[in-house]
Amino acid sequence: MAGLLQELIRIDTTNPPGNETAAAELLRDYLEAAGVECALYGRVPERANLVARIRGSGGGPSLALLSHTDVVLADAAEWLRDPFGGELVAGEVWGRGALDMKGEVAASAVAMATLAREGWRGSGDLIFVAAADEEVGAGYGLQWLVLEHPDAVRADFSVNEGGGERFEFGGRPVYLCAAAEKMTSPFVLRVHGRSGHASMPAIGDNALVKAAPLVARLGEFRVEPRLIPEVEGFFMAVDGGVPSAAEALERARAISPLAAEVVEPLLGMTVAPTKARASEKRNVIPALCEITVDVRLLPEQTPAEAEAELRSWLGPGDYELVGSEAHGGTRSPFAGPLRAAVESFVAQEEPGAVVAPACVAGFTDSHWLREAFGTVAYGFFPARKLDAEQAARLIHSADERVPVADLELGLRFLLHAARAVCG
Ligand SMILES: [Zn+2]
Fold it and tell me: What is 221-266 written as a DSSP string?
């Protein structure tokens, strides 16, 4: 499995432009050698998605092992090793995508090949999707597959990235299983003024200066906390009871600072001004200042609610608030056979450890399956050797690497889930 991951890392699938076809072909060749049925689907030839399938005998639920083959940019100057070298050093595979998420791609492919070689067959289909274009989402990956090839990717259950981190809270091991995702709902704050020559500031009405107090106010944004089901489930699993929404953050801090980091972004919508644009010329007073605001909503919230919250937070004033396309914000019930498979796996691997539901603060491809087919989709690829805090610092960053022991743990989980869910 380490060898397959090393080969995948050596194929540069930095998105943009992606060029995921070479990775899809490598996986197809590997899987076909084990007798697994494969198909490539691409909106354009150089950006293929791979879908592989072990057909069930009929009647049982289907499970999709979902992953993506593209990666984000790596600046070799920041790295200790070649980000596309795929080196195996002291039990760790180094390279861009080792954690996000060519490691899980490799483990999923090995799980498919292992089951096929054993002659295993479930009652439902086991599907492996190695999608293109997750990191940018320009319409070449799963979003396109669910529209153009729904029969290839439809599944009752799915396992993807986004969870499986292991924490110790009060000495008790806890694995997070992501059952939901926040919605990304960006806004642009536009502040108008009047231009003029910068040598005579009084002549104009400086939009940048007018925007400054609004930006500062956005930086202090707070909402009344509320408890979503995943946070209630988290407290039940970790603490044996559910605090009130008002006490939740304090309770999480008492459990551990890390528990507070997990819980805090899930207590409400979050707001972060991230981009600013005003005059293009040093000597011209800007007539317009545009502030891009990254806004993340709880799964049940709508962009209209977010806009109302923002307006009431900023108060009346000389500004416009323009929402752009929102996406994500779906959830699956944390119940049923896939949850049972996650829990039985953790009980078997690490007796005494518990599984707690989580909500991803970002976005994953699980959203497209939930939205299109009502798939029960979880983010769960367990990691035990690599500390969750360290993993968070390596993803999309320099020196990304994964311990082979964690790939093996993940492979054992995928095999367990396939047997448990597809029956
Ligand atoms: Zn990813």
Answer: --------HHHHHHHHHHHSS---GGGHHHHHHHH-HHHHHHHGGG
